[in-house]
Amino acid sequence: MSQTLTKEVIYTASSLLEKSVEIVDADWRDKYGLAVILRRHKKTVVQLNGVEIAVSFTSCKLTKIRWIDDNRFLTATYESDKRNIFIVDSSGKLLYSFKGGEAFEEIVVGKEGIWISYFDEGIFGNGISTEGLVLFDMTGNILLRYHSDLLNPNTIADCYALCKGRGTSVWIFPYTDFPLVEIKSKERTSRTYPVPELLHGAHALCIRGKYAYFFDPYNSNQKMYQLKIGTQKPLLLGTVQGALRGLDPSETNHFISISLNQEIVLYQVMNGDEYQYI
After folding, report:
1. Per-residue pLDDT tens for 136-172?
2. Most buried one in 80, 196, 230, 231, CB count within 10 A?
3. How far is 225 from 235, CA to CA, in rounded Å?
4. Which secondary structure element, helix H or strand E, spans residue 268, and what is its range?
């Protein structure tokens, strides 16, 4: 692995000495710690920093978990014909639930609300998923629809990657042309940057200052690349195993991963030039 990448294993399912445990999803915040969804003996278990939270608000399999703050988290299920987004407090009490659309691909939570992106099955389906990307408030009210409300949207056929930007912005990497797109929710505008073909198809994205990090482009065998935004010369950082997701710019680490051997891993890119604009 490249010396520009550091790796920290923060959770290992095998340490539980239970072969029937599967890590479904996880989230990490420096301020709040680790939130995990596990499947244990065919039952869903939510853990917040090692403490199990009773899941009584739905009988569906939970597939996503995200911190909101130190006392609330979001969890979701792929069931599309029911309320599938749940806002829950740290005791397991359901605060709000709403329908977040079908075939959602990624969920990002910021102070501006809940961003949900969608696979092509949702975009070319029915309902709110056809927008490609939607911003909801914490009770499920729609704040921004990508295709309908942005002043200058690029068409999304499938939102391959979504990550939080600074302030109230997010970044996406949409199929088919794979531009890198910054979306500013307050201004309802977007800005597009060309990306070299080598990075097309990346399934995870992280933005830090003037740099973008791309994981697992087409035919790359899980390679990670660094690109100065607006340029065409990516730098190979190394190969990383697992399913990665880019973290918020306020975080120390750049990516969280669930590895094939059931570990939760944090990856940090050592790049001192991220916020050097001069």
Report:
1. 999 999 999 999 999 889 899 999 999 999 999 999 9
2. 80
3. 5
4. strand 263-269
